Amino acid sequence: MVQANGILVRDMLPGDEETVVEVLTDAFLGFPPVQIVVGTDSGAKDRLRRLNRLTVAGPRSSRFLVAERDGVLGVLQCSDPPDCFKMDGRQMMSMLRILGPRVVAAIRMFREVGKVHPKTPHRHLSQVAVHPAAQGQGVGSVLMAAYCESCDEDGLPGYLETVAWADPAKPSQQKLYERYGFVVTHESPGGEGWTGLSMTREPGALSGAL
């Protein structure tokens, strides 16, 4: 599909699911919006792993791409409306059990995100994750190139949510997304040290550099 720097991007296969769950869990455990949902205590990683398993191994309306080089190094999840936040009843009940009292904060956050979610056709980049051991090796760039290629082929704008750090020294995913033609369209209150961002990309916009 897309290959660069010895990294191949392809669609996820059934045998990839548990590895994908672990990559997502390890990559996002310290991400502030995720911490709102799963907490920061000793059980946070298990809760996040179980949530990821619901999304990856259950009934899916999203597309998952994996980047591999001697194993899966990164994952990208995307979907088109009306499937951006779709869950069936069983998945919803499982999510409620996993989150427990944190579900109130999670619903509040999802409502805020939903207020600025595009109402017009688009391709929602739900998450892009690179295993911590493989970060800085171009994995995220290859995944983004594949995603942007799919948007351009189908004539769809891209959309995503991320954060901006108050500390400019912190690594910023915003810069990666801007390299692929995304621009900030909305800022929302976050937490201590960060602000929520919504970003969009028009079809055929800048495609970055691998």
How does this model look, in words?
By secondary structure, the protein is of the alpha+beta class. Helix content is 39%, strand content 26%. It contains 7 helices and 8 strands; from the N terminus they run ββαααββααβαβαββ. The chain has an 8-stranded mixed beta sheet, with helices on both faces. α2 packs across α3. It starts with a strand and ends in a 9-residue tail after the last strand.
Q: Which strand order do you get reading across the main beta sheet? A: 1-2-3-4-5-6-8-7
Measured by DSSP, the beta-strand proportion falls in 25-35%
Percent helix: 25-40%
Structural class: alpha+beta
Give the tally of β-strands.
Answer: 8
The H-and-E topology, N to C, reads as: EEHHHEEHHEHEHEE
Provide mean pLDDT, rounded: 90
Could you give a short account of the major beta sheet?
8 strands, mixed
Q: Report Rg.
A: 16 Å
Morphology: globular
Q: What is the end-to-end distance? A: 14 Å
- Low-pLDDT stretches are none
Total of helices: 7
Attribute tags:
210 residues, 39% helix, alpha+beta, 26% strand, single chain, 7 helices, eight-stranded mixed sheet
Write the layout of secondary structure elements.
Elements: E1 2-4, E2 7-11, H1 17-28, H2 32-38, H3 44-57, E3 63-68, E4 72-79, H4 89-99, H5 103-116, E5 123-130, H6 139-154, E6 158-165, H7 173-179, E7 183-191, E8 194-201
Parallel strand pairs: 5-6
Antiparallel strand pairs: 1-2, 2-3, 3-4, 4-5, 6-8, 7-8
Helix pairs in contact: 1-3, 2-3, 3-4
Could you provide a short overview of the structure?
The protein is of the alpha+beta class and 210 residues long.
